[in-house]
Structure formats: C-alpha cells, structure tokens
C-alpha cells in the first residue's frame, strides 16, 4: 500500500442510497410499487453476480487450481483456457436423468436442494460489497445485519439434514447427522469469535463494521497498514478462518459428504438438476463465507485507489478466500469425525470465549 491512499470502499455513509433505492430512482417509479420493483431488480442483479462467480468456480476454477497444486494440466481443450467446460458441464449435469429413490420422503427430498443455495443468496442481501462507479452495491443495511447474515447462513444445515433424512439411504442419513454435529460444534465458536469484532466496532450493522476498520493502524517506512481486524486481532482472525472452513464444509472438515467414507453423504441419492442445486449451494456458501470474513476482518471493500472501485477489492478478497479453500482441499487431509468434534468442543469453543473475554477487557481498558 505504499504510495497510495487507503479509501473506505466499503464504508457507506448513513445518507447514502442503497442499491435498490438507486435502481428505483433510475427507473423513476413512484411509491411502494417502485420500491418493490427496484428491490427485485437489484436483488436479481446481485444474485446473478454471485451465481456467475459460482459458475466459474465450480466447473473451471476448482479444477484449474487443484491441477496447479497437484502438478497436472486440468481442462484446457474445451475453448480458450478450457473455459467452455462451464456450459459443457452444465449441459452434461442437467441432461442426466433425475432419479428419485424409492421410499424418499417428499416434499422434503425436493425442497432440500432449493434451501441450500437460497440460504446463501439471502446472506448476501446484507453484505456491503462496496461501490462500482456511482453504484452502492448493498441490498439492505439493517441495524442487526451482522446477526442476520449468520442466521441465513445457518439455514444450510437444515437443508443437509432434510436431504439426509428424506433420501431413505443410510449413507445420506449419516451425512445429515454429521452435518448437525459439525454445525453445533463450530457455529458457536464462529459466532462467539464474530462477537469480538462487534465489541471492537460497537455495532451490529455490517456497513458500520466496515467503516470502523478504515483508519490507519500504523505506518512503517511509508507503508500504511490499515486497522483491519485481521491485523488488530490476528488470533481472532485465525479462529474465524478455521471455524468458517468447518461451517462451509471444506477440507479438512468436509465430513458431511466424505467420499471415502460415506459415498457422498447427504447428496448420495441426488442427480441431475437436484445435484446441480447442491453443487451450486456449496460454492455459494464458500463465497458467502469469504464475504463474511471480508466484512468482519478484511475491511470490506476498502483498498488502495478511489472509492468507486471498492467492489473490485471486495471481489479480490472473496476470491482470495476461495483460493485458500482450494489450497486446503489439495494440501490437508480430512480429519475423522471424532477428531472434528473434539477440535470444535474442546479447542475452538474454549479459545473463542477466551478471545472474546480478552477483547472485552482490552476494549474496556482502552476506552
């Protein structure tokens, strides 16, 4: 960051219009109807951006990154850089026959693959993604937005349980039960660690948390280190990353699907469009996890340069987290279910409460 000014790309002044309001103003639609139409259009645009990220990440980026880590080539013959694998894989998966297992509990079986991606998309509704030119890319900014994003994200475990129970398959049921155990063991440390961020920021509003990280922490040899909470409290940042990885089910915590143990876990009996929805939901939650991490610890959309390119920095940070998850997938072995539970309850839980207590004491002394 030498030679550049750090701008609050994610900081949203109280009087600034949110994205739905900007769309409504641009369309010139009056009254409640205009607000509803503006909100729907804004949500549609933001949702499609996230779906586009997922479309690139799943069929193409995941393979290319894993191949780079394991000294392989991956897809390179279908279009330039293998990019046409994205539509090819989509057509391939959607063209497969949708097989419903005998004895499946419906409509729970049908709803499970819809709930997973929907919960992630709901989470993005309160994430401040910064500015892109004149556009302020945030759908809503409630005073309890930080709580809402965790509430929306936690719905994912309900989907996995529904899929596991409704599939009438013992491997699926085991995957669903593992998802519940993992969620209980790691969501508490995740939220407790996030509360240490709230103690620092003094607000539950996501834009307020980003704004609180815009000051310079220290300047060394002309290089300005921002007051991002990852630098202010690296211990909490480390705890949050580990708990976040468990929450989104990435290596070494991909226990609910564990292919070498329980076939494919909760999604064993799903095919065609239903499998695509699960696959979509899995990657949407990876990006949502990266977005939450960015807001809580990495200064949101802030970065060198003008405020109008804040969204670019937001995308860079979220994709950096995705790259980290793929590195873990290639480098770290999966832990056993008993090890996962022990790490969560005996390690993460104790450390997260210790971090919260220490943070509260430090803030109390400083303030």
From TrEMBL:
HAMAP family: NDH1_NuoH
Keyword annotations of the record: Membrane, Oxidoreductase, Transmembrane, Transmembrane helix
Top enzyme class: oxidoreductase
Highest taxon in the source lineage: Archaea
Compartments, as annotated in UniProt: Membrane
EC number(s) stated in the UniProt entry for this protein: 1.6.5.9
PANTHER family referenced in this protein's UniProt entry, alphabetically: NADH DEHYDROGENASE SUBUNIT 1 (PTHR11432), NADH-UBIQUINONE OXIDOREDUCTASE CHAIN 1 (PTHR11432:SF3)
Transmembrane segments: 40-61, 114-133, 145-166, 186-204, 216-243, 276-298, 310-327, 347-366
Name of the featured protein: NADH-quinone oxidoreductase subunit H
A single cellular component GO annotation: membrane
A GO term for molecular function: NADH dehydrogenase (quinone) (non-electrogenic) activity
Lipid bilayer topology: Multi-pass membrane protein
Organism listed in the record: Halopenitus salinus
Location (main, coarse): membrane
């Amino acid at each position: 960051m030498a030679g550049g000014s750090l701008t609050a790309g994610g900081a949203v002044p109280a009087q600034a219009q949110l994205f739905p309001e900007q769309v409504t103003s641009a369309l010139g639609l009056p009254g409640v109807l205009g607000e509803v139409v503006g909100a729907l259009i804004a949500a549609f645009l933001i949702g499609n951006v996230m779906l586009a990220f997922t479309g690139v990440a799943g069929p193409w980026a995941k393979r290319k990154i894993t191949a780079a880590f394991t000294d392989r080539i991956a897809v390179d013959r279908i279009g330039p850089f293998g990019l046409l694998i994205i539509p090819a894989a989509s057509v391939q998966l959607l063209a497969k026959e949708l097989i419903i297992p005998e004895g499946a509990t419906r409509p729970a079986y049908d709803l499970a693959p819809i709930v997973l991606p929907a919960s992630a998309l709901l989470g993005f509704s309160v994430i401040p993604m910064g500015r892109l030119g004149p556009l302020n890319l945030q759908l809503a900014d409630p005073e309890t937005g930080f709580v809402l994003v965790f509430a929306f994200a936690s719905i994912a475990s309900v989907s996995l349980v529904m899929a596991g129970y409704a599939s009438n398959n013992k491997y699926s049921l085991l995957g669903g039960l593992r998802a519940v155990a993992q969620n209980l063991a790691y969501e508490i440390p995740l939220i407790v660690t996030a509360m240490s961020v709230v103690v620092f920021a003094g607000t539950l509003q996501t834009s307020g948390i980003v704004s609180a990280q815009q000051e310079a922490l220290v300047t060394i040899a002309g290089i300005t280190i921002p007051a991002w909470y990852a630098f202010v409290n690296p211990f909490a940042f480390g705890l949050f990353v580990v708990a976040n990885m468990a929450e989104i089910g990435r290596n070494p915590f991909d226990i609910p699907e564990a292919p070498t143990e329980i076939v494919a876990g909760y999604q064993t009996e799903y095919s065609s469009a239903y499998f695509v929805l699960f696959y979509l939901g899995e990657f949407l939650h990876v990006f949502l996890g990266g977005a939450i991490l960015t807001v809580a610890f990495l200064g949101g959309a802030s970065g060198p340069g003008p405020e109008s390119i804040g969204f670019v920095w937001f995308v860079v940070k979220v994709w950096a987290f995705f790259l980290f998850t793929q590195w873990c997938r290639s480098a770290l072995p999966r832990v056993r279910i008993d090890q996962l539970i022990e790490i969560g309850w005996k390690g993460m839980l104790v450390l997260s409460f210790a971090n919260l207590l220490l943070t509260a004491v430090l803030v109390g002394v400083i303030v």
